[in-house]
Amino acid sequence: MQIIDGKSVAAQVLEECRAEAADLLARGIKPGLAVVLVGDDPASHVYVGSKVRTCLDLGIHSEKIVLPATTTQEELLAVVHRLNRDEAIHGILVQSPPPDHIDEDTIIRAINPCKDVDGFHPENVAKLTLEDATGFVPCTPAGCMRLLAAAGIATAGANAVVLGRSMIVGKPMALLLLGKNSNATVTIAHSRSRDLPAICRGADILIAAVGRPEMVRADWVREGAVVIDVGINRVLDSSKKSGFRLVGDVAYDEVAPRCKAITPVPGGVGPMTIAMLMKNTLQAARQSIS
Ligand code: GUN
């Protein structure tokens, strides 16, 4: 059984990014990323802090904009419009989920698609469907594809099951696996699918992205399958100083022994998301001059 080390693959991606940032700088472009966070969700603050630190480390300009939970839709739209006009900013990310009174879809559509490094704008969703490489691919599924490649997993002709149908992970993941660079046979399953365990047992490659702690059990997984666990769930644990620990959507201890390869949580998909965000920011900066 191979444990796919997301930290080490992410470190490779970040070194590629460091070289590319330096190359752009030599050509007079300092890549820039703006990260907008509305409200005080603790996990979101951790993610945003980590995105900003990674930018600094790579020589990418970053602007962190933290707004109170009471920020109105109009105030948030005004921030997005200002960032759209700002020539020092090539990528804009509004951390999800926003507070309930904000309509996330309206905010996403307001972002200039050329700066939409999350790949959530309809124009980028269309480009992913069309396999147009000028679009931005959502960071987490892009990271999963890179992990499969780094682990030497052949996807062509494989039965891939994507558990989850979100716009952030499930749907783009299915499109990437299906695309001409991958050529998997793809099934998308979700909470309303009949007999999820049976569907998952048909997977050579199982991508778990449902957001339910340890939902995927040993008898859901075929012997020799490859399992990519996208879940990052906080579960209460009084033995930890923080009061919680992180678990994936896969019951790792019982599933791992059956697998050909599996990603751990933490240290699997998580580090890849930020690394691919840096890649997308550099793509945005590069495309801004061509
Ligand atoms: N929240 C969790 N993952 C993501 C992501 O990839 N992008 C944004 N904007 N918010 C998130």
| pLDDT averaged residue by residue | 98
General shape:
globular
**Largest beta-sheet details:** 6 strands, parallel
> How many angstroms does the end-to-end distance come to?
45 Å
Structural class call reads: alpha/beta
Small-molecule binders: guanine
- How helix-rich are the residues, as a percent range? 40-55%
Radius of gyration, in angstroms, nearest whole number: 19 Å
List the helices and strands in order. EHEHEHEHHHEHEHEEEEHEH
Number of strands: 11
List the strand order in the largest sheet.
1-11-8-7-5-6
Poorly predicted segments: none
Relative strand content: 15-25%
In short:
This protein is an alpha/beta fold and 290 residues long. The chain is built from 10 helices and 11 strands.
Highlighted features:
290 residues; alpha/beta; six-stranded parallel beta sheet; three-stranded parallel beta sheet; 17% strand; globular; binds guanine
Describe the structure.
There is one protein chain. 41% of the residues lie in helices and 17% in strands. The protein is α/β, with parallel strands linked by helices. α2 links the parallel β2 (32-38) and β3 (61-67).
